[in-house]
Amino acid sequence: MTHGRHSDTHTPYLDGDRNWRDSASRYALLPLRVFLGVTFIYAGLDKLTDSAFMKDAGAGSVGDMMRAVRDSSAIPAMVDMALESPVGFGYAIAFGELAVGIGTLIGLLARLAALGGALISLSLWLTVSWASDPYYYGNDLAYLMAWLPLVLAGAPMFSVDAALRARRRQRTGGYR
Predict the structure, then answer these.
(1) Contacts of 23 (CB under 8 A, 6+ apart)
(2) DSSP-assigned states of every residue in 21-70
(3) 12 band by pLDDT with thresholds 50, 70 and 90
(4) Distance, CA of 125 to CA of 131 (rounded, Å)
(5) Radius of gyration in angstroms for the set of CA atoms belonging to the chain, rounded to a whole number
(6) Which residues touch 58 (CB under 8 Å, ≥6 apart)?
């Protein structure tokens, strides 16, 4: 019996000279990136196309939602700032979600987009879903945690960032 050497009978290679675990590791963040990108694009478009949401007051309006969560939020001063111009805040969140979603989905300035997504999720957690009891019923904390791996890793595969890196590498003769 030989020790220290493992030999498989199947071909372990999916991507050049890498084994399947290396390939899986390279693509591990892709499903998360697609999910968050599509979700934030949808959330932004949903807000922009909802005539009730983009109003100071009324059922389903951003203004009424912010007034409803003001006293139960972790930082009421954040809600007060949003209430100075609820419609402006609604548009800022909607366009922010859209920019974050597009950047994440196509992998353009992916770390910056993920940081934007994390900040949006953090602000919503500290205001809108802070009063969720137990805390894990509010989804904004889970979204915040989901953004963090993308803040750290960016979009190394199937992204505009990766294409630009490869192009720079090619121009500089393989360095960088």
Answers:
(1) 14, 15
(2) HHHHHHHTTHHHHHHHHHHHHHHHHHHHH-TTTSSSSSTT-HHHHHHHHG
(3) very low
(4) 9
(5) 21
(6) 52, 64
DSSP letter (8 states) at residue 71: G
| Ranges of H-type helices in 50-154 | 62-69, 76-84, 86-106, 110-127, 139-153
Assess whether pLDDT exceeds 70 at residue 143: yes
Please enumerate, as own/partner, the contacts of 154-158 that have beta carbons within 8 Å and a separation of 24 or more.
Answer: 154/107, 154/110, 154/111, 154/114, 155/29, 155/33, 155/104, 155/107, 155/110, 156/26, 156/29, 157/26, 157/27, 157/29, 157/30, 158/30, 158/107
Instruction: Read off the tokens for 146.
Output: 């989901």
- Which amino acid, residue 17? D
Per-residue confidence at 8, pLDDT binned at 50, 70, 90?
A: very low
Q: What tokens appear for 5 in the block?
A: 């050497």
Interacting residues of 153 by C-beta distance below 8 A, sequence separation 6+ = 29
**First-to-final CA distance of the chain:** 45
Neighbours of 135 (CB within 10 A): 11
Handedness of CA 47, 50, 51, 56 (dihedral sign): negative
Residue with tokens 């020790």: 3
